[in-house]
Inverse folding.
């Protein structure tokens, strides 16, 4: 590579942004291909300057994908019913059903490694008095022989969960 200067400027930043968009999109649907495209970033680094164009372009591309996904999924859903789910079929409703559109059963797998899975999901609760709990949570699951060997929940608002549970008594 001696004698060949790396490209700089807006063209380099745009190339990095395109790489960031493609890698981020693939990470959501095809993680294995995202790893391969991520490795292709090393080749891109040989042609384009890493700092500041690489950092700015990659963050702009990945951020644009995340912003687009957020905008496409903001609002627009039907409001959740006032009555809580009463059966297992209500809880495990198919995608597109009212229970799923309320965010209660549409988990987002974030990471899977061997028998462990990390899942982002939406926790909702309704007390008879009408108080509601509505927040995102992380679930860490381990499956052995087709059964849950471990199911651990991590709440982003532990104080709100404890208050909700104490009021239910």
């Amino acid at each position: 590579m001696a004698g060949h200067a790396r490209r700089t400027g807006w063209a380099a930043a745009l190339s990095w942004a395109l790489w960031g968009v493609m890698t981020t999109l693939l990470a959501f649907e095809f993680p294995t291909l995202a790893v391969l495209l991520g490795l292709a970033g090393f080749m891109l680094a040989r042609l384009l300057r890493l700092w500041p164009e690489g950092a700015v372009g990659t963050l702009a591309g990945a951020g644009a994908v995340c912003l687009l996904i957020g905008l496409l999924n903001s609002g627009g859903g039907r409001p959740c019913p006032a009555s809580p789910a009463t059966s297992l079929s209500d809880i495990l409703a198919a995608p597109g059903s009212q229970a799923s559109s309320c965010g209660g059963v549409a988990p987002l797998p974030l990471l899977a490694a061997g028998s462990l899975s990390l899942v982002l999901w939406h926790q909702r609760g309704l007390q008879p008095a009408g108080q509601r709990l509505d927040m995102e949570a992380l679930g860490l699951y381990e499956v052995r022989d087709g059964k849950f060997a471990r199911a651990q929940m991590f709440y982003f608002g532990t104080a709100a969960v404890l208050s909700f549970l104490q009021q239910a008594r």
